[in-house]
Specification:
The structure is a homodimer. The first copy, chain A, has 13 helices and 19 strands. By secondary structure, chain A is an alpha/beta fold.
Chain lengths: ~450, ~450
């Protein structure tokens, strides 16, 4: 649909394809700037006016303006009109580009999301067909709030083998995502009389918020190269640790620290919550076994399929000390019932058939390749930049140059079309580490991964 | 494996098939009683001794003793030995029975679970293949805490058409089960300053517990033939209603009452929670439209796929008044994230392709057939028994004879191999209704449905 602008100062003919409104509007505006039809400094119509004229959602126009601003074609200032950028601030059009409307892609280097393009769609569907052919009808009923026995058995076998967890199927409670696991556990600890939970000084604010929602206080422990520092644990009732791979710093909790923390917990029935969010992804040496194996009666182990398969599944599990099983199950029974059953049955089938292991190995190799490309690119273009957290996981922490700030670096990256976050986003107690970026490697498409890294090193250079 | 009893007074040779321990033990004992090898009044070994001899779990023996006692072959008394029943108390062996060890099945007439054997397994798998072939990769990411747009759009269209709900996709929040919907809503109401929620005097204790967990007080409203009575609503901040089909009484909230309750809510921004758990299943007349349509800005409408598809999916949805959308979404974001994504995409596909409607029509016909058989059986064998809640849903309430009690009737049903519950199980405020049974029709297999009803009428007769 071609629409002639009428209600704004801008004489602009925009072709909006109703089957792809946002993309066609973005292409049309970018082309208008590139071709010079929109001159530097020209005011664009307000998002409200343009949306009304095109009969599209205002949010679509806002999105497109933001995207083109992030790419450097437009300039948006809070409270004033969006204008066409000066040529100096614009991205250069690749000279070999055949079409003047070539899309300038944006790369997402934020941590936390795996490469969901690797999700084994065909295998998942095949496994669903298999389990639905075999499952008894009552598997589709309300069921056991701890989750399907097939999955708890499969997890018991897998976690013992792959992560060294010591468990029986009855220790497992299937949950919908780690956040729900942590919330249920926090509620149970609170009901048991706990009041204060120690967390790592670096991590997700959302996780701390979940603990607080359950009525508990949190305090943040310093983290150094050996992981969380245990000397201030006294006075707290539990501690939450990313022991195998600190998020986001990437360090491993040392054996000495593990022993100290287990002794602290054993002294007064305190609880250690082990958040093993990406224990499968370790590249340079053998996987670091779960801390749970040191003290199954003290450690609540929390795992997830969010990194190995896809976050959208919301599949997670708790392996609980015996005394905590019933209270967690009762809370699930009261408020939630079991986790959705079909995904549970499919994951059980993938685990028992060995296809889960094969998928994890495939993706581990792919992530290792990305890690290697990241290391090579940093060494070639940002030599000497300190990088933390390289032998594992899906992200690293890159320290900024002396005098640089996270806000400035994030802004420079953004102006090059990169989404990336400062360490401050994951800091629960400021002032412990120099300014850094948390760089996720998992999501840019493989074919453009090097281009994304190139932009990152340019942004780091200032 | 054949085992000779040695540690007990009973000389009994039991063949236990290790691949089906429980069933073979049950068959062998039943056969021993039927054939007279075990005489009336004979003591059986204790469950502990028999379990030790047979090297099976004691719980297996306890189960088998309970089953055979429920069937009338054995007599178990708390604290004394299990004995063989007198022939008078025993079920008669059908004269035409070819095998003396014919299994006597147990039927579940409890309300609340639909006939999960009708779950459209092949269609579900086919729809998953379709959506996984088309879904963009980022559909598998953490996503929007309100749920997939595909499902919210499909629900908006379906609920408007099938249930008369007035809504836009952005009013919808996808949840994991009604209990979670109610809990999220209760938390948001509490945060808004609400302190007291009215509920119906008949319903699920678990639902009241969810409201209480969120920090709210509940009071129970009387229910009569026109539904919940509104005259004591003043002083409360919200009310939860099963307006289309009161659970479990089966009455419909009258138009006059609906108007009164909407006016009450409008007077002071109070909230009506409409629990539309089985609105699709109405047999004698057109469906009763959702109360939400009267006042979309006051009614939080809650729906679920638990009755139409399967409870194990834990798929449910809230249609919220505009001002409640953001707080509910934020609470989901903080504690849960979105509901699992694949089931959402599949349900969206089933809704938009019309297969959901066809499935609902198929199952509605089947349930209507069961309802008719139930009515015919009651008319033939328990004439004059008052029965409530017949034109809709998957259960009815059957009033007991003068002088009978729910406990006694449940016990008589149990001794005939029937699981059924008294109205007391669903009573939040006692003394309002005469003793009754809540009879679910959905789960006994179709081929044995008449046999189950026959036993029920026998149990009702005393």
């Amino acid at each position: 649909m071609a629409v002639q602008q009428t209600t704004s100062s801008l004489d602009l003919h925009v072709d909006v394809d109703r089957t792809r409104v946002r993309a066609s509007l973005e292409d049309a505006l970018r082309e208008a700037v590139q071709s010079g039809r929109l001159a530097p400094g020209a005011r664009l119509p307000s998002s409200r006016a343009l949306a009304a004229d095109l009969r599209v959602a205002r949010s679509t126009v806002v999105d497109v303006y933001e995207q083109l601003s992030a790419e450097g074609w437009l300039v948006s200032r809070h409270g004033s009109a969006t204008t066409v950028a000066d040529p100096v601030g614009r991205p250069s059009v690749p000279s070999g580009a055949s079409a003047p409307t070539a899309v300038v892609p944006t790369y997402d280097l934020r941590a936390g999301t795996p490469d969901v393009t690797t999700f084994p769609r065909a295998e998942w569907t095949a496994a669903l067909r298999t389990v639905l052919a075999a499952a008894p009808a009552d598997a589709l009923g309300y069921g056991d709030p701890r989750g399907r026995i097939e999955l708890r058995q499969a997890l018991a076998s897998y976690l013992a083998r792959a992560r060294g967890v010591r468990l029986a199927p009855d220790d497992v409670v299937v949950c919908s995502g780690y956040r729900q696991s942590l919330w249920l556990l926090s509620r149970v600890l609170r009901a048991e009389g706990a009041s204060s939970v120690a967390v790592e000084a670096f991590g997700h604010h959302a996780h701390r918020d979940v603990i607080v929602d359950a009525g508990l206080r949190t305090v943040a422990l310093e983290v150094d190269d050996d992981g969380a520092r245990p000397e201030h644990l006294d006075g707290h009732d539990a501690v939450v640790l990313t022991a195998a791979h600190q998020f986001p710093l990437g360090v491993v909790l040392s054996p000495v620290r593990r022993g100290e923390i287990v002794r602290w917990a054993a002294a007064d029935r305190r609880v250690i919550v082990e958040d093993d969010y990406d224990g499968e992804f370790r590249y340079d040496r053998r996987g670091v076994g779960a801390m749970q194996a040191l003290a199954p009666e003290l450690v609540a182990y929390a795992g997830t399929a969010s990194k190995t398969l896809a976050p959208g599944l919301r599949l997670a599990w708790l392996v609980l000390p015996p005394r905590l099983v019933e209270p967690v199950v009762e809370l699930r029974r009261a408020l939630l019932g079991q986790a959705p059953v079909l995904d549970q049955l499919v994951l059980a089938e993938l685990l028992t058939s060995g296809r889960y292991d094969r998928h994890v190995r495939r993706t581990r190799l792919a992530y290792r390749g990305r890690r290697d490309r990241f290391v090579a690119e940093m060494a070639a273009r940002s030599p000497g930049t300190p990088v933390l957290g390289l032998p594992a996981g899906l992200h690293s922490v890159v320290q900024l140059c002396e005098g640089d700030t996270e806000d400035a670096a994030v802004e420079r990256a953004s102006s090059r079309g990169l989404a990336v976050e400062g360490l401050g986003t994951y800091t629960l107690r400021p002032g412990l580490r120099p300014p850094s970026l948390v760089v996720g490697w998992a999501t840019p498409p493989s074919h453009s991964f090097t281009a994304a890294l190139r932009r990152l090193t340019l942004a780091l250079a200032g």
